Each structure stands twice: as C-alpha cells, then as structure tokens.
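Deliverable D5.2: sample structural annotation.
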Amino acid sequence: MLDIEEQVKRINPLALYGIVGSVPAPNTFICEGLSGLGNNKFTNSYYVYVFRNITGTGAAPQGEIQPITAYDAATGAFSHGAFLGGPLVPGDEILIIHPVLAGAGFAGIGQGILWGRVTAVPGANQFTIPTLAGLGAGKFAGVTNPYSAFVLRDAGGLSGQPQGELQAITAYDTATGNFTAAAFTVPVGLGDEILLLHPSLAATFNLAILRGATGVFFEQVDTPVNTTATNAAETDIVNLATAATRYILRNLRLKCADPGANTVTVRLKLLVNDVLTDVDSFPITTLNFGSYFSLMDMFAIPDVAADQIQITVRASAGGPYAVTGQFSYGKNNV
C-alpha cells in the first residue's frame, strides 16, 4: 500500500486520497479515512477517480472517473456514478477530486502528476521508482502522447543536471517500477526526485520548462515601472540581458498617460539569429491610454521565454509622458 507521506508529496491538495474499506453496494464504497468532512461536502460536485486497482495490474476500473452523488460524513460512505469496468473492491486506492480540477481537464489528477524517488539505475536511460510499481503495463509509455519524466530535484541538492530536464517515457515495467526515458543531458541518479506528467499536462502544467525553457526557474521579486516616454530616444521598461541566463517574463502591466495627438509605441525586442531585433510593437494613443496593458493585450502572448528580453517605449512627438506598471519574471542559469 502507498503510505500517507508518499501521497502528500505526490497529490495536489485539491485531491484527497483514500483506500476503499468496504463496498456495501455496487455504486457505493466506504473510506473511513475520509469520514467527518461534513455531510454533502462532496455531493454533486466532486468526482471519484480510481487511482490504483488493488491487484496492481491496472485492471478496470483503474483510471475511470465518476461524479459523487452522495456522501455520509459519519461513516465515510460515498455513492457515485457507475464505473464502466465494474464496481470498486476493498483495497482499491481512490482520489476525491475537486470540481475545479475536473473542470479544467485534469480528470484524474493522480493519473496526471505522480511523484517518486529513484532507488536504482539499472541501465542506460533507466531508473527505478518502486513506489510507482503496479500501475499497469503500458500505463506511462506509448507511441502517441507518452507520459514525460521531469527531474524535479537533483539528489545532491545543488541543482545539478539533469534537474529541470524533461524527457518522454519510452517503457515502463509495472512489476518493478522501472522506467526507460529518452536521454537526459546527464543520467538520472540515485535519490533524484521525479515527476511523471500526463501528456495532457505537458502544455498546461505550470513549470517553466513547459513554456519553451529549460531548467527550474526561480521567481524574482516584482519589478515596478515608473518612467517616462520621450521623443528623443527609447526608454527601457524591461531589459533582461545577463549573460548565460534564461528568462521567462510574465504578468506585465503597463499604463501610459494620455499622449494627446501623439503616439507612444511599445516595442518588444528579442534575439533573432543572436541579434537583438524588434519583433513586435503596440501603439498607445488617446483612444486607449486608459488601459493597463498586458503582454497578451499588446503582443498576443501570455509570456516570453528567451535569453534576452527588452521592452521599450518612445513617443512620436511631444512628451514626456508618464509610464507606470509592474512585471514579474523568473530566471535560471544556462
């Protein structure tokens, strides 16, 4: 059985883990560990997801999800929609999933994100996580949309490679918990911590590596903007350009004073063929100056990942015009 410590490490707080104690009816199970949480807390909103079949073979209804229709806080009894693969049995492991997660496309969050620590490295591009054994042959590997292995933490604690790298899983042995993945820059080592990511999360999970960057990014303190746009030269709003550093810029808000009959142009500059180049621009005029503009408003992108990022403002005439705002960014060494 999976112990609570492992579950706390691997399960999103919006998903509650439990082990089925008894099944008094086909669509009802009792989980005493989830009793006492308030009558009807989960009714008609939460979902039950079958995280692991007790046999460890991945047999149905493992991987299925159904809405919860009733909950008895006194006993920990849950009623739910019928699973296609048949009813639960005592010993099955389940997740009670918050509707926010289910509605966001994370049906089966336990299926989507799994944590484990490497205990053996039996061969090239292989690693073993015994606590992730028994989840069903072919569970994590496939020709189309395989799971990915993300190295969350290097065992040495020094952020050494391959920490922050992501590779597709190409094979999984359910009996041993042995994984084979595409090659990392440096092989995974004993004690490294791994996240297994469902392919549906690869485009949405909030890790910087999944935004076109490499490595674990460290958030920096917000940077305020308090400057002016003149017609003499461009004024920096953002200028991230330290050598051997990768950046992700996000959550920018920019407000300009009314330029009257003139225009204040906001320019985004990025490296193109290793030359800093104007790649996009946005005009602020008397018609729109009242807004607090975001990256999406100005350049139709939610964030920017690059080795050098510069955003400037310049007035076509007149000025100076006050420009205020704030932005946040993360960075890592490359």
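Annotation notes: Residues 134 and 175 are 6 Å apart (CA to CA). Helices lie at 4-10, 99-103, 109-112, 295-299.
The annotation will be released with the project's public dataset once the embargo ends.
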